[in-house]
Amino acid sequence: MSDPRPTASARFSPLHDVHVAAGASFTDFAGWQMPVRYSSDLAEHRAVRTAAGLFDLSHMAEVSVTGPDAGAFLDYALAGKLSAIAVLQAKYSLLLNERGGVIDDLVVYRTGEHEFLVVANAGNRDAAVQALTERATAFEAVTVEDISDRVALIAVQGPASRAILEATEGLETTDPLSSVRYYRTTGATFGGGTVLIARTGYTGEDGFELYVDAPDAAALWAALAAAGQDHGLIPAGLAARDTLRLEAGMPLYGHELGPDTFPAQAGLGGVVALGKESDFIGRHASEHGPDPVARRLVGLSAEGRRAGREGYPVYASADAEAVFDALEGMVEPAGVITSGALSPTLGHPIAMAYVDPSLAAVGTRLFVDVRGTRIPATVVALPFYRRAAV
Amino acid sequence: MTDQDNLKYTAEHEWVSIDGDIATVGITAYAADKLGDVVYIDLPAVGAELSGGTVVGEIESTKSVGELFAPIDGTVTEVNDSVVDAPDLVNSEPFGAGWLLRVRFTNLPELLSAAQYRELVGE
Predict the structure, then answer these.
(1) B62 touches chain A (CB under 8 A)
(2) How confident is the model over A77-130, as pLDDT tens digits?
(3) Residue ranges, CATH 3.30.1360.120, chain A
(4) Which of A120, A178, A258, A273 has its CA 20 to 30 A from that of A90?
(5) Above 0.95 for ipTM, yes or no?
(6) Which regions of chain A are under pLDDT 50?
(7) CA A216 to CA A219: how far, in whole Å?
(8) How far apart are alpha carbons A131 and A173 in whole angstroms?
(9) Could you read off the pLDDT of B70-105 as tens digits, one per residue?
(10) Residues B84, B101: contact at Cβ < 8 Å?
(11) In A, which residues are within 8 Å of B14 by CB distance?
């Protein structure tokens, strides 16, 4: 068993002392020491599905993009048409390379007519900032600034989220939260500072993400935790976050997305706005798209309790020997799992995998090699879990 | 609850309780905590011959797969069916109801003392 200890260069969240006091176990995530769990992964996962969970996501990277050219610049730098979103609106987007592959997946918030906040993965902070900065040189009136070190991010996720935020002492929102729809935002104040509250998340539940000045993060965390006591809110770590997003069929960079993956392979072709008039980095490659035989991302569902996990090969046949004998040679896997776990909500193994397109149809029977044993699995539509309509 | 000071330990985070020629084997609270919530356990069958230091089972959590190493040479005399049915016993009572195997051994190798194990895990 591995036992990662923090290295001398480890980064710590502004909420680190709060997590230590709460008895969290920590894990290295992209060089950050972040809570992997406080008590139990499963209890934290279930709290988000049934009540609410409180997450520290301060490792995420925030990039401010401002200026009269900000919208046009983002249309050029990213795959989506960000100039078209309204003030206070959010949009999921992709930062592509020239080959049409993914440098990072992002959420972009329009905070003003000429102001955007781009939120990148912690592990891609440098790559995203570098790409955005380079692409900005083609524009006169835009400023790209990495503000990650000044910004903390706290998420409240789960069906009780809104009631908890509404009950939070000292948190005053500009718009009532009942009027803030999914992928919309509102301004807010807490203490003397400002907070951006977005109805976004990465769990498949209703929920909010709160961007706050780092020095105010501990007080906001405490106020949210206090308000959540009557609503079943518990702090939740990255282990629960990973199983929640997997059930929700949401891709994670480095697993389902990477520099050699076309968005279309991951089912994200619609995020690439080929219809926009302006050029953008990766457009030419995206127009030609992935090779027809390139693997496609699918959901896999299995019975029992043994989960296929990242890196496990997927085969079209149950019987390794028979196929081997028939072909008198090595049989290549038909795919590979990128994320997998025993689903806490569904009670059976689920996985996302890249498989050959001929095997990607829903209902196809496949076999996951779980450390030498071939476990049957069925291709299913994503997501695995969808919350009941409100 | 077993007295943890009187147990023997391995560097692979197993504990061993010796009673005559029978060793009861489990994983430590430290290991259970590092794994997270245990959701699946695969153990060798009764009668299986174990070779010390080899992988004889698997302990899966939501996050990862841990391997169970045989701490000693011997024959499996009993497996804990309760823990197979309710793997979370490994988290809730790693030194008690969460035991995994009983093994009849002929030769007891050098194992870690409680103090040596605590030093190993830095506690």
Answers:
(1) yes
(2) 999 999 999 999 999 999 999 999 999 999 999 999 999 999 999 999 999 999
(3) 14-278
(4) A258
(5) no
(6) 1-3, 329
(7) 6
(8) 34
(9) 999 999 999 999 999 999 999 999 999 999 999 999
(10) no
(11) none
The pLDDT of residue A301: 98
The reported pTM is 0.92
B37 → closest Cβ in A42, A305, A309: A42
Q: Would you state the pLDDT for residue B63?
A: 85
The separation between CA A227 and the C-alpha centre of its own chain, rounded to angstroms, equals: 26
Whether residue A206 contacts residue A162, with contact meaning beta carbons closer than 8 Å, is answered with yes
- To the nearest whole number, what is the mean pLDDT of chain B? 93
Q: Please report the pLDDT score of residue B108 as a whole number.
A: 87
What share of chain B in percent tops pLDDT 90? Answer: 87
Provide CATH code, domain B4-106: 2.40.50.100
d(CA B104, CA A195) in angstroms, rounded, equals 63
B13, B40, B62 ranked by CB distance to A306: nearest: B40
Which residue type does B75 have? T
CB–CB of B35 and A1 under 8 A? yes
Residues from chain B that touch A25, judged by Cβ atoms under 8 A, are 33-34
Class of domain A14-278: alpha beta
Domain ranges of chain B: 4-106
**pLDDT score, position A1:** 39
Residue A41: its chain B contacts at CB < 8 A?
A: 36-37, 61-63
Residue B106 belongs to what H/E stretch?
none
Q: Where are the beta strands (DSSP E) in chain B?
A: 8-9, 14-19, 22-27, 38-42, 49-50, 55-61, 65-69, 74-79, 101-104
**CATH 2.40.30.110 occupies which residues in chain A?**
291-380
If one looks up domain A291-380 in CATH, what number appears? 2.40.30.110
Please report the pLDDT score of residue A325 as a whole number: 53
Q: At what angle do helices A41-50 and A238-247 cross, to 10 degrees?
A: 50
